[in-house]
Structures are given as C-alpha cells and as structure tokens.
Amino acid sequence: MKRILAALTAVLLCAALLAGCGRDAKASAKKIGLAISTLNNPFFVTLKDGASAKATELGYELVVTDAQDDPAKQAGQVDDLIQKKVAVILINPCNSDAAKTMVEKAAKAGIPVISVDRGVSGAEVLSHIASDNVAGGVLAGQELLALVGEGAKVVELEGIPGASAAVDRGKGFNEAVVGKLNVVARQPADFNRDKGFTVMQNIIQANKDIRGVFAHNDEMALGAIKALEAAGLKDVIVIGFDAVDDAVAAVKAGNMKATVAQKPSLIGSMAVETAVAHIKGEAVQKQIPVPLELVK
Amino acid sequence: MKIRFGKLVSRLGPLLGLLILSALLAALSPDFLTVSNLMNILNQVSLNGLVAVGMTFVILTGGIDLSVGSILALTAALLAAMLKAGIPDSLAIPATILLGLALGMASGVAISIFRLQPFIVTMAFMTIYRGATFVFTQGRPITGLGNRGIFAALGRGELGGVPWSGLVFLAGIGITAFVLARTVYGKYVYAVGGNPEAARLSGLAVRKITASVYAVSGIFAALAGIVLTSRLDSAQPLAGNGYELDAIAAVVLGGTSLSGGKGFMLGTLIGAFIIGVLNNGLNLLEVSSFYQQIVKGGVILLAVLLDRRK
Using an 8 Å Cβ cutoff, are B282 and B44 in contact? Predict the structure, then answer.
C-alpha cells in the first residue's frame, strides 16, 4: 500500500513539475496586495472591507493577508505577496520599525509600497494614508479636560509600543493635557480589549481616585470600562478612539463619553484608489491624511 | 532485511506527507514551484526550524521546553542592545549564543537537579524571560542597529541565491543529525528518553544529560533570535510569542514521539517544511487567514493520526 502511495506521489509530483515548468509567475497588473496587521480588530476588518469594495468597483483583485500582530509572520506574508508579483503592496504594519526590511525587500523586487493607517519608519514608501492621529489625540485630550476639569487624575492606555498610531495619538493627547491634567499611569495594552481590561484592573489597584481614562483605541477603552465596572468605580470618564460599532453603542448608552471617529472604510478605499492611480501612471501624494471627528 | 524495510517505511511517512502536500499545492498554484518561491519557503522555515532543532533534543529525552519563544525574545533584545552600543557583531553574536545556552541551562538545572516537571519549569521561565524582555526593552522595540556585515546577512542575505538563514538552518540540521545518530552523546540522549531508569542503572549521568538538552534548546532559540532580529532589523518585545507551539508541531510532525526515546532530526526537517509549505501555499492560494488556522490544525491532526496507524 505504502509503495503504491509513494509511486503515485512521484507521478503527481512529476506532473506538477512539468505543468509548472512551462508557466512563469507573470506579473499581475490587476493584483493588489494588502498586508494587514490583524483581523482580530474590527477597525481593520472595516478597513479591509472598504478596500475590498473599492478594488472590486475598479476591477482589481485584492489579496489580503493577516499577520495576527506578529511582525515575523507579516514579513513572511509580504514575501509571499512579492512572489505573487502583485502590482502594489498596501501594508498596515504590525510594527512601524519592523516593516522597514519588508519595504526594502519589496523595493528590490520593484514593487511599490503604500503604508496604511500606521507608518513605516526608516524606509521610503510611495504614499502614507492614515488619519491625522495627532489631531485626533488632541481632540480627545481637550474633550477629557473639559469633562474632568483641571488637575484631575487620569490614566492613558497606550497602543502597541512603536506603532505610529499609538505614538501619534499619545503625542496629541499629551500636548493637549500637559500641565492641566495629572496623568497618574501610562501603560500599553496593545490595542487589545482583554489587555485593556487587565491593565486597567491593575492600575485601579494603585489608583482608586482617577477621574478619567483615555485609551488609544476603542477596544482598550471597552476593556477599561468593564474593569471600572468590576471595581465599582462609577462616573469615570472614558474616551476611546476609532468609533467602532461597539464603541458608538457604548457612547449612546452613556458608558463611554466620547470616541474619535476615524473612517477605516474610507482609509481602506482611499488606499486602493491611490494604488490604482499609481498603476495607471498617475502621480500620487506622499501623505494623504484622512479626516476624523469626535463622536459624543 | 525486513526490519530495515520497516524502519524505512516509518521514516517515509512524514516525507510522503510533505511530497503529497507539495504536489497538491504545485498543481493548484503556478507560483508555488518556482525557484524563488522555494527559496522564500526556506527563508521562512528557517526561523521555526532552528527552534525546532533544539526542541527535538528536549523532546527526545521525554521533556518539553515552553520557554524557547521567550529565550528568543530576550536574547534578541540583548543582541540588539549590544549592536546599538557599537559592539562588533563578531563579538555580539557569539555572546548572544552563550546567553541562550545559559538561559536554557537554567531550566535544565531546575529540571534535573530539583527533579521538577519540565512543563511547569519551562512555563515559569517562559514568563520570567518574557517579563525580563519587557523590562529590558521598556516595552518598545530596539532599532538603529546599523547595517553590519555578518548580522545583516544572517537574516537578509544570500549565498548563491540561497538565503543565509536557510543555510544556517540546514547546517544546524546536519550537525545535530550527525550528533544524534553517530556520537556517544547522541546515544545517551536517546537512552535517557527511552528509559531513564535503565539509563541511570547503566551508569549514565542522566541529570547532566537532561540539563544539557535544555541548554541546546536555548542555543538554538538564540540562533533563531539572531536571525529574526536581522530579518526585521529590530528587536521586538513580543518576538517569538507562541513559537514553542510551532516548534513542537514541527518535531511531532517529523515523527518524534512526545514520550521520548524515538525520533530523528531529519524528521524535524520534514516537519518544519510541512508547516512552512502549508503557510506559504495557503497564502499563495489566497485562502482567507481565518480558514488557514483551521487547515493548519487539521493537517497536524491528520498527520499525527496517520503516523499512529503504523
């Protein structure tokens, strides 16, 4: 039985080899790659959907990969996209520093890269499309200040360390509240709801008198809200970022006081539009900021 | 003659699986069987593969090492810090390997001298080393490592079109396969795994041998850390997270028994490739990442089931 199996495999393999011999992986002018950091985050799911819809509308094929927040996985997936000879790679880096080598490799293969929502540090990309995260952080900071009053104790839950979104939102927030609010704790919860819950729980242990929380994204804010509920702390003002469905519902219900609305669907579709423009030979802008607004 | 044939067939199992998988993918995707894609696979496989090489030693003694991912991260962080401080890579790289040895040895000593369960001990060290990595990096990636010769080549360079990371991995397989099959130490490892009591009664230094395999695991985790740091040109605090599971999968897929004493290094090579080929193939076929996880788990389950029927 095993011998037959072995022979069969040998035949199959030869056939496949012969079949593959004749064909080259031809460069596909109609394929665009989208390397997402993680589809475990509804923000990026919406971004992907927006990109997909736009690609279908314009008649291009979108190849999506999900790195589950692992830069090493993302490096492998970008390699695979290069193998597929896509025309443009849209990258949403797990980590802005780690993405540098991926962009360099794509450049060597002659494939341009557009960074989406998070930037790439240390390497040049064709274009960078993201919300103006610094302005968003400022909006959130000003709103928090208005709601808790000067001198109040607040907490900042940060995103994945090194992700440009986290860096920018933190920058904007701190610019707006420096000298006016007392930030007693500043901890990363990696943009993740579970982590937001546990980190907030731990912070509450040491700081029972906080009046406000700013989280770099809604997922962490929602986790923080649960932690505050569990600790019996009422009337703590929580402000998130992203305005995903769960957060908008929470704002309506009064659990979250505000969230900064990005437009992930628009970011996704603008990314695809820019890629297509480049493929058609048109010039594209280096930085494309996508507008945002406060939802309260 | 009959015994030899039986052994050959049992060794062929995982290889057969790999060939069938490859044939299937080659038929389904024209991009799969190109030279550049095969080199691509080798590059991707080398990371998990290096960790799996060390893990093979540990599993052969009937133990397990859950701390490899954290050792990878901690050694990577320290390597990055050394390079950033200007230490030449000819010094920093060996120092990193020694560090991996030491970190692995810590588990080994705890397990052999205090007779603790490998699962718990390595799990504890997994958490300790991960925490240490966060403390050392302050939760932020370490960048600005400079483009050094050896260091840059290990993760990103090639020799005659073959990625250096792949060459390091294959060399690791070759050396350790030789050690396991042809040296006295190799025989001792199998003996301790097959029947520790009998090994002890035969006068083998069971405790020393047990401790040593964890040191080996640490060395290879450090090697993987070096390759990863070079590939990403930065050290990530979350690097290597979950790598222990992929490494164990590679070892088991290659036919090594989790209870110890049975298995061989070339099996790990095949196991690592099965996982790598799967990952690459599913990406090339543009299978949604949600389905990829289900397929991967399914293949591992199938492979282990088929192996048992012999």
Answer: no
